[in-house]
Write a structure and sequence with these properties.
3 domains, DUF3196 domain-containing protein, Cyclin A, domain 1
Length: 317
């Protein structure tokens, strides 16, 4: 047995040495391929993992960076801070600036080290600059910075989200009337949500009609809740994460993204199911995804609602 352990240890060290040599030679594609095999036999130390991230960055495979970082964080493997910073960096390079700002703002509310906080603030600053450049590019495309030249129906979903995030960040209320006009047309549910939230932040008052899920609804803007006041975020999310932090901490980040996504998708409508039942249903749903049993009896209507939201989101994405 000791011979096998010694042999395995020497094998790992040889594999690490080969990886380091590949990295030094700039053989990024070969490094990535060999690292994938290496990961199956052992957890890499942070030095090797940093090389993997740099190699993926070198070949501009930012989506794999995101997938890998999320997977490692969900499994509780490796250095959490490294994974999160690499995740934010990849999102920035894919121009998913709103996602970076959302992640960063959430992390800043947590009890984290000062160094980690500085790194997050740096990625958030990059995202803010990216948003500013995206808006400049948009205004140049339409030939002017005049409000009347902004045409939401000619912008992609990502461009619209970036634009809304930027003007909200800048407290720029000039676009309120343009947003009201756009709400009468079909947009993705997420875009409609952030249009409504922009109007609320801009101090727009009165009733308006908006189109979502092929249905026209009427709301009074000043009576709309902020996103954080929705039951999914205010009630359900703390209950679910509180339970998972004790039983499955590796799933906390995943559930945050899941519940936040559902809240953004369905806003401003609350689930017709009581929040207490929803919390148990989300726990049951998450555990079902990884084929684990949980001692929670989920309400049938609550589970149906979660599945329906997931199905609709998959159809729109």
């Amino acid at each position: 047995m000791n011979d096998k352990i010694s042999s395995h240890y020497r094998f790992i060290k040889k594999a690490e040495k080969d990886l380091v040599q590949m990295f030094k030679e700039g053989a990024s594609a070969d490094f990535i391929k060999r690292y994938t095999s290496f990961l199956k036999i052992t957890d890499p130390d942070i030095r090797i993992e940093e090389m993997y991230y740099e190699s993926l960055d070198d070949v501009q495979d930012y989506q794999t960076i995101i997938d890998y970082a999320l997977g490692m964080m969900n499994d509780g493997r490796g250095d959490y801070q490294l994974h999160m910073i690499e995740l934010l960096g990849a999102l920035n390079k894919l121009e998913r600036y709103y996602d970076v700002i959302s992640f960063a703002d959430q992390l800043m509310e947590e009890n984290i080290s000062q160094g980690f906080r500085i790194d997050i603030a740096n990625e958030r600053h990059k995202a803010k600059l990216g948003l500013e450049n995206a808006v400049l590019k948009h205004t140049e495309q339409y030939g002017s910075e005049e409000v009347e030249d902004v045409q939401f129906d000619e912008m992609s979903k990502e461009e619209t989200l970036q634009f809304l995030a930027y003007i909200s960040e800048q407290n720029d209320t000039r676009y309120a009337e343009k947003v009201v006009e756009a709400l009468n047309r079909d947009h993705s549910p997420e875009v409609t949500t952030f249009m409504l939230l922009y109007l609320k932040d801009a101090g727009f008052t009165g009733g308006i009609d908006y189109r979502k899920f092929n249905t026209v609804e009427s709301v009074v803007i000043e009576k709309l809740p902020v996103l954080e006041e929705m039951d999914l975020i205010k009630v359900v999310l703390p209950k679910v994460t509180g339970k998972l932090e004790k039983t499955a901490p590796e799933m906390v980040e995943e559930v945050k993204m899941l519940v936040m996504g559902h809240a953004i998708y369905s806003y401003p409508k609350e689930s017709p199911v009581d929040a207490a039942y929803l919390a148990d249903a989300y726990l049951a749903y998450l555990y079902s995804l990884i084929n684990l049993d949980i001692d929670v009896e989920a309400d049938e209507k609550a589970m149906e609602w979660i599945y329906s939201i997931e199905k609709e989101m998959n159809q729109h994405n």
